[in-house]
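SAMPLE LOG
Freezer: B-3
Tube label: C17
Construct: single chain, 326 aa
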Amino acid sequence: MIVKARIEHQKDFLFMEEIPDQYVPDHRLSEKSITIKDAPVGIKNYQLSTNGLFLVHSEMKFDGPARILTEVEGEAITCQFIFSNKNGSGATGKQSAKYGRSRHNIRYIPSAKEAYDVKPDVEFVYFLIVLSKDYYLRLVDLYSPLHEQFVQEIEKGISTSFAEHDLFMTPEMRRSIEAIVNCRQDGELKRLFTDARITELIMYQLEQFSQHIQGGKEALLDRDIPKLEEAREILERDYIDPPTHKQLSKMILLNEFKLRTGFKKYFGSTIYDFVTRLRMEEAKRLILEEGKNMYEVGVNVGFKHQASFTNAFKKYYGILPSDVRL
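STRUCTURE (predicted):
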């Protein structure tokens, strides 16, 4: 299998990699970094490849319109994660706000050529995992029956996606991606670490796909999606003191029932679970990175009573907040 991508009218490839179709347990990793600065494009790539696997982490900035051309020769399973943000937005300064429009999906792509138009003045972080069919089946076969229908479509040799529309990326997925990109191990340890994190990442995707399907198969109206996006942005900004469902529905001009059901279908998470994830991620960061005491952390993430924060943290992570530093 060969995968490659380049910017139209640019001679340099963003990546061009030949990936063996078979997974080999004792495989060795190869890594490289590529920087492209050729107006209107600025790209910084980190790439890792081995038998049956290729991943690329790209930071892209486009000062003018551009088109990305991609090509797959052979059969590929891709896990795609895209963060994007218009320059200058993101008032809170947090990563979730800076790259708030984050999406993911799993796709089967037989030999194909595609083109994607990119708007100017947009920053992208693009994380792509390309797996051979053999590698993918080894990773997921033990963990979830959800992929069975997906595999049936693969056997037909027709391009298909797990979800009709890309879903919102969860904090757990972001954490797994950051761990892969920032891993400082090498050799055998990095191989084991990378395999484990990719398996973890795919499991998070399958989990959300499952929740999305269970939430109902009714199609969302196109006009409601921007309102749900607005709801997510409000919750990411105000998760410490979030609006009630009734208040939020008035803010985005969408009735409360459509807000609750649409949010679950579109993002694969209830509003409550979404806010809880944001609070718990921030709480853990405050403990580990800023060394705040438990009372300060609880107050900073919106809990008025210490006992409520402690119980919520233990329910989410399975341990007391005071045990995180141990």
